[in-house]
Amino acid sequence: MIRRIDLRGRLADGEELDYRALVPRASADVESALEAVRPICADVRHRGVEALRELTARFDGVQIKDIRVPESALRDALSELDPAVRAALEESIARARTVHADQRRSDVTTVVAPGGTVTERWVPVQRVGLYVPGGLAVYPSSVVMNVVPAQVAGVENIAVASPPQKGFGGAPHPTILAACALLGITEVYAVGGAQAIAMFAYGARDDAGAQVCSPVDLVTGPGNVYVAAAKRLLKGLIGIDAEAGPTEIAVLADESANPAHVAADLISQAEHDPLAASVLVTDSTELADAVDAELKLQVAATKHADRVLSALTGEQSGTVLVDDLAQGVAVADAYAAEHLEIQTRDAPAVAARIRNAGAVFVGPWSPVSLGDYAAGSNHVLPTGGCARHSSGLSVQTFLRGIHVVEYGQEALRAVASHVETLADAEDLPAHGAAVRARFPS
Ligand SMILES: NC(=O)c1ccc[n+]([C@@H]2O[C@H](COP(=O)([O-])OP(=O)(O)OC[C@H]3O[C@@H](n4cnc5c(N)ncnc54)[C@H](O)[C@@H]3O)[C@@H](O)[C@H]2O)c1
Ligand SMILES: N[C@H](CO)Cc1c[nH]c[nH+]1
Ligand SMILES: [Zn+2]
């Protein structure tokens, strides 16, 4: 069902293989979306709320009067929430808090020389904008994954934006609102896509000039290519987390894997988006054939079969046949998947060899769906190969390390000549003079 890329024997034949080029990312990539989002961001910058209303009508098909969701609507959504969904959200929040609480760093003071210290002080970002997707699916779980690390970091001011949904009175989905209420979030905007990121970056005023949304310092959260493109465009004016775009799963499996489970996991992430990527890397043709047969059966029975089929048959998905697991690890590292499952014998040992992945799911009982909702790990993870250089969302995302330098007179005197020498070597003598001025001879 999904295309095959057969690498077996090719290394032995002396071929040089470019593993990074094997499985391309979906063609509607972030670079090409940049041109579409540039005018959207400019419009929000110049016309504020009026532009947000028009863009929402155009892209979401929803007429909104007020972009900010009233707090009473958040409370109502929570009181009307299905008790089973509430219990599941509470469990998800509790597990996420447990894991993220352990990520909180302490300030560290280093005595560099007698009387000279450098302290690294971890300070939370003051105001953040958290994006919760809501196009093809709605993601109350992404409310949890964004809000929990921000709260654990100690961010004072948290705003959430999510697209308004048709049939819900111009508001985001009620479960999104309920999740916000459960977490104590009161500032929620019914705005999606690139326009939401622009609203966070520039702030937004209404027709009378009143500030409806204040600018934020940092924007985090997953979204489609337009959201990712707006984040890339506005980076610098705002901080951003790693780009978390269309979902990806790679499964590194040998003949010991259960093909029905592998297929189910590939389908589970393909369900997000026709641009989602599902990649199987295996040294077993028998497993590849069995997974393909399972995919045919399971895709036919799954609810979002059209979306899944588009994702699985897109150029961004495929089965890579490798000579052995060592080559499988090299392929997985080059691909740098958002999610990587290891379904092999001695899975922990294989997992320990992986260098590039947003998150690694080890063994048969750790499917990606567990991490999506209730493992305690974060599901906002780098996509598009960004796992080669970036991490998923964590408490650290919301903190800045500030170096606090404190030297006494003797500590400065002891190192003064080195500062002057280096200043002269860079032909910046005023730097040296600033130290010398403190020690007139
Ligand atoms: N990496 C992660 O952590 C993670 C987590 C959850 C979801 N996801 C991914 O997030 C994505 C969510 O995408 P989505 O579309 O469902 O929701 P979304 O909220 O990201 O995007 C919907 C918005 O896109 C805008 N839009 C739609 N078509 C447009 C166009 N032609 N031009 C400009 N703007 C347009 C609309 O304003 C709409 O509000 C999926 O790809 C999913 O795989 C990733
Ligand atoms: N798999 C997504 C991250 O790419 C997260 C998610 C939320 N809900 C279901 N799944
Ligand atoms: Zn998912």
TrEMBL record:
GO terms for biological process: L-histidine biosynthetic process. This is Histidinol dehydrogenase. Substrate binds at residues 247, 269, 272, 339, 372, 426, 431. Zn(2+) binds at residues 269, 272, 372, 431. It catalyses: L-histidinol + 2 NAD(+) + H2O = L-histidine + 2 NADH + 3 H(+). It comes from the Bacteria. GO terms for molecular function: histidinol dehydrogenase activity; NAD binding; zinc ion binding. Its cofactor is Zn(2+). NAD(+) binds at residues 131, 195, 224. Catalyzes the sequential NAD-dependent oxidations of L-histidinol to L-histidinaldehyde and then to L-histidine. Belongs to the histidinol dehydrogenase family. Its EC number is 1.1.1.23. Pfam families: Histidinol_dh (PF00815). NCBIfam families: hisD. It is an enzyme of class 1 (oxidoreductase). Pathway: Amino-acid biosynthesis; L-histidine biosynthesis; L-histidine from 5-phospho-alpha-D-ribose 1-diphosphate: step 9/9. Keywords: Amino-acid biosynthesis, Histidine biosynthesis, Metal-binding, NAD, Oxidoreductase, Zinc. The gene is hisD. The active site is at residues 338-339. CDD domains: Histidinol_dh (cd06572). GO terms for cellular component: cytosol. Binds 1 zinc ion per subunit.
